[in-house]
Every structure is written in structure tokens, then in C-alpha cells.
Amino acid sequence: MKRRLIILLLLVAVVVPQVVAQRRSRGFWHQEWTVDKGDTIPLVHILPIRKYARKPDMRRYARLIRIVKKVYPLAKQARLEMEKMERELLRIKDPKLQKAYSKEAQKRLIKQYKPVILKMTITEGKVLLKLIDRETEFTAFQIIKDFRGGFVAGFWQAMAKLFGNNLKLDYQPETRDRTLEQIVTYYEMGWL
Fold first, then answer.
1. How far apart are CA 28 and CA 21, in angstroms?
2. 148-174: per-residue pLDDT in tens?
3. 44 - beta bridge partners?
4. Mean local confidence (pLDDT), 34-48
5. Structure pTM?
6. Do residues 145 and 153 lie in contact, with contact meaning Cβ atoms separated by under 8 Å?
7. Is the backbone of residue 25 left (phi > 0), alpha (psi -120 to 50) or beta?
């Protein structure tokens, strides 16, 4: 009887810590082990923690999370559409047919996404443009200029400026858009 109790305690002492260590916790998770000079060491990944001085910062952060959840799928879809258009334009050799294809694609995209975009706030539009730049590595102005020409890009830049936006604004994950990059990373990992 005493022997069974000791075996059970040893089993619990060995199994329970491994099960608990595999579970994700708030702020860190443990998934891997490494062996260093004969010692088995758990690899613990610690997530970055952002400290906010005031409550309005937390409200702004939570609002940005809601915006990213809404517009990030659109940015990913924009990347897929752009890749599709690039493949098709490379396939078409005649410049006139390329221009006709670009116009037709623009009409199709406007018809498909106009209802969604019209319901967006200005802040959501700004975040969408930054995330499109993040996904495609081109600003919205560059994309419009490449597919529709400089005059059309200039027209849309002027329209964006009227509403307090800038199509030439690029995505800077290391400086200006650090918080946005953090939220997108968490979203991609499924933590939001």
C-alpha cells in the first residue's frame, strides 16, 4: 500500500508540472525544452508587456484592437487581390488590354468593397491604409499609381487629404506604428 502511494506521488510529481507548463498563461508560455551540458532546461517565452500611465491610454489601446479586428482581414484580402492583379497584368502583354483590365478590376473592387468602406470611420480607414502597406510593402499611393497611373493616384491623394488622410503615409513598425504592430502580431497569433 505504501509502495503504491509513493509511486502515485512520483507519477503526479512528474506529470502535473509538465501538463501545467504546457498550458498558456497570461504573459508567458512554455512549449519547448533544451538540453545544455546534460541539463534539461525549459524554454519560457515571455511576452512583451506595455505599461500605460493613464486609463485613457487603455481605452485608446482597446479601441485600436477593435479597429484591427475589423480591418485586418480587409488588408489581407487587399494583398491577395493585388497579387492576383499583378499575375494577370504580367500575363497580358498589350498595354491597352492591361489598362482595360485595371479599370475593370477597379470597378469590381469598388462594387465589392464600397458598402464596407462607406461604413468605416476615418480612423479605421487610416489603420486600413497602414495595414495594406504592411501586407503589400507599398503605400496606397504607390499601388494606385502602379495600377491606374499617376494622375488617378494624385486625384485620390487630394481626396484623402480633404478628409485628413494621406495615401503616401508608410507603415513604420519600429517607431510610429509600434503599438499597431504589437496588436497585429497578437491578432495573427490568435490571442485577441
1. 10
2. 788 988 998 898 888 888 888 888 888
3. 30
4. 78
5. 0.67
6. yes
7. beta
